Amino acid sequence: MIDSLYIAWRYACFNKIKTVTLIACITLIAFLPLALQLLLDESERQLMSRAVSTPLVIGVKGSALDLVMNTLYFVDEVPELMTMAEVDRIEDSALALPIPMYARFQARGYPIVGTTMDYFDFRGLEMAKWRSLAIIGEAVVGAKVAKELELKPGDFLVSSPENPFDLAGLYPLKMPVVGILAKSHTSDDFAVFVDLKTT
Fold this sequence. Notes:
- The protein is an alpha+beta fold.
- The mean pLDDT is 89.
- The chain is 42% helix and 16% strand.
- A hairpin with a 2-residue loop joins strand 2 and strand 3 (110-115).
- It has helices spanning 2-14, 16-52, 64-73, 84-93, 117-123, 143-149, and strands at residues 101-102, 106-107, 110-115, 127-130, 139-141, 156-158, 174-181, 192-195.
- The chain folds into two domains: 2-51, no CATH class; 53-195, no CATH class.
């Protein structure tokens, strides 16, 4: 038994690269499923925490997945639009506080989200620099947007055209950045917020 262990030890010492490679492969095979499960659990927890904190999302008849993904995470297809009369009807019922949202346009790859000031209170978003929205056309950017695009209050952000070859389409909007949101570690960090009338 001792002789076998000695031979194995000498073999491992002589073939260091093979031994290290073999140990690394076995370690990777053993821990990869565990690490992947931890990563998936954390992703699910973060996605579900935003969904759980939102009591109800209302939209017109269509894909519920598109509606939720567009409303909560500002991604996916833009669902069919509702009128502001529906928002007024919900508010008149006094059953809920409606927070209208419109996320159709983008600015340099980041979604432009048109909403009301109630959204900031609902999500508990705070300003890290300067001030919140005051007039039509102003923009408040999320922490990641400000960092990636190197924006600061007083800079301008131009919306991206939907189709650069459509001359009769919507023209880009030059929005003054009036504030930067504090980091929230949610999809709000990756969004540009404007007043609903701006969108």
